[in-house]
Amino acid sequence: MEIIYLKKYEQYKKNGIGRRYQTYGSPIGLSEAEIAQMELEMNNGLPFPKAYREFLFLGGEYATIQISNYGKNTPKGTEYYRNGLKKRKVNIIRPFAVVDLFEECGTFIYLDEGDNPQPKNCSLHKAYDSDDDEIIWNTPYKTFSEMIDELIYLAENNLVV
Question: How far apart are the C-alpha atoms of 10 and 83, rounded to whole Å?
Fold first, then answer.
């Protein structure tokens, strides 16, 4: 797969810089066939945004950066979040993918917002809502690749969020 958006992640995978990489090893990606299967399950067979496809290919099974994702179980994990949000009276009908999770909150992208969508946060419990009591709110990153680039910077410099 040609990497266009996540060149820093591609270099990180090749160079192995940082304590996380030295401790946990190289990121482990998904095959293009595994990604295509996920596209069938989550996006009606339409291609994922290019930046997200690159992430899955480079480190979709194990990222080795400060991100917790579901790997091959992303369709099930995303459905868990979809159902959890419905319980909070938020019904997302658009295709989306959870790209990072922490307890009862997560970060997701809409799969129909172009090749490099803006990540959004969501909470499954009121305790994790935004400071403005929002259940879904924008992350500070304008694009998915910007978020990944920041996580690469943190990993290479042995920093944490």
Answer: 34
